[in-house]
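Cast an eye over this sequence plus tokens and walk me through the fold:

***
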Amino acid sequence: MLEHYQFKKDHSFEYSTNSDDGLHRVRAIGGTYTYSNGMLKLLVKYTREITGGTLNRSTIYSSNDSWSIEDGTYAKRALKSPLWFGIEVKFVSSTRVSFDSRMYYKIN
């Protein structure tokens, strides 16, 4: 899976970015969520980022002409001020859901 959301029963969530791109330092955002009346409210509290490392050519990543950040450290960083975002949600079927008109698929 490239980019995807994970929602847990404890009302925490994490959105993972496209991990195929080796130049992106932010790999995920996360926090807590509530859902009511077709609106998903996300409180983003942290990022997961690659810190440090060196620019290199990679045999693993295929985006950006194989450029990537190598030998960095994966770290969770709290946001100084958490951010609220509202997303309109429509359940299309038991396996498909639309977030602000973008289609996502449920995977167990």
Summary: Residues 89 and 99 are 5 Å apart (CA to CA).
